[in-house]
Request: fold
Amino acid sequence: MFLARTQRTINYRNAKILAPMVRIGVLPFRMIAEQCGADIVYSEELVDKKLLACTRSINEETGVVEYTLDKQPERVVYSTSPTHEPKPLVLQIGTSSAELALQVAEKIYYDYDAIDINCGCPKHFSISGNMGAALLKDRVHLCNILSTLVKNISDKAVTCKIRLLENVSDTINLMKHIEQTGVQAIAVHARYVPQRPRVKAHLDVLGEISHSVDIPIIANGDCFAYQDIDRIKQLTKCDSVMIARGAIWNPAIFASDPVVQEKWSNPHYVALKMLDQFEQVRHLFTSAKYIICRTYGDSSKDGAFLTSLSRSSSYEEMRCIIGQKLL
Ligand SMILES: Cc1cc2nc3c(=O)[nH]c(=O)nc-3n(C[C@H](O)[C@H](O)[C@H](O)COP(=O)(O)O)c2cc1C
Reply:
């Protein structure tokens, strides 16, 4: 059986987008985001060399396409399924090489709809490998990676996600060069490279740069409620909005329907829904537990409850602990 995603064009205008998030943006979490109303979902960032070392297979039980390393077959590196997540899926990669990026794009070809280059990650791991935000310092190299993908993977969208440079004119200049490569959209995380997420996003700066290119610009930063989506679009004049932490804490942030929002405002309801999705695709329990604990964020002040959740060792146990809270 060879399962592939069908060809599609992606509309990057007026879209509510699930941001790429390491350890969070896995298939079952993306499924939840889609069900709640996300129009486009990003995978977590995956490093080129790791993907290139993986083998593709189809899980007979679930019908999900899985990429795994031979030495750790139980730990799925990347998975997808057009039936489980029918909306546009963007595979985000960490790379510092046009050649390796292209090899990934070709290898995974049937299992994504668009490919995105992470140019914003400030972590040591990325910077020391000349990936992530390091690419912002070498415009020629970054544009070479992007144009190599655009030229060779002509029937899939290529995009990138950047951060703000120190001054507006440098950011605009970079965006213009990126546009010239033929990418279909640019996501801009409205923070400077050294800034942590707790620093307020500079959405006002997005308003100064969004007019500078003709391709869609995706605003990212501090979207924490459904109403913020329109507010951010108006403030920044960006085409679409991408949401990271707001979606972890409340996946129903994408839902326009107040009934859905109301139902999902109960964190225990959200956690049980997530458990269903994780179990449906036989997701590794430890990863599911990590994500579910994070969805509680600060919403549960109940330390004993969170401790017992984090100590649970099976889906069944976790369901039982959460279920008691709903009695
Ligand atoms: C848990 C977590 C993991 C993240 N992983 C990635 C990643 O893999 N790739 C990426 O480009 N950004 C990553 N980010 C950054 C987010 O995509 C986003 O740019 C940032 O959190 C700002 O959006 P927010 O204010 O909506 O949280 C991550 C953020 C969080 C909170």
In short: Residues 19-22, 24, 44-45, 92, 118, 120-121, 161, 189, 197, 201, 220-223, 243-246 surround flavin mononucleotide (CB under 6 Å). The two ends are 44 Å apart (CA to CA). The chain has a mean pLDDT of 95.
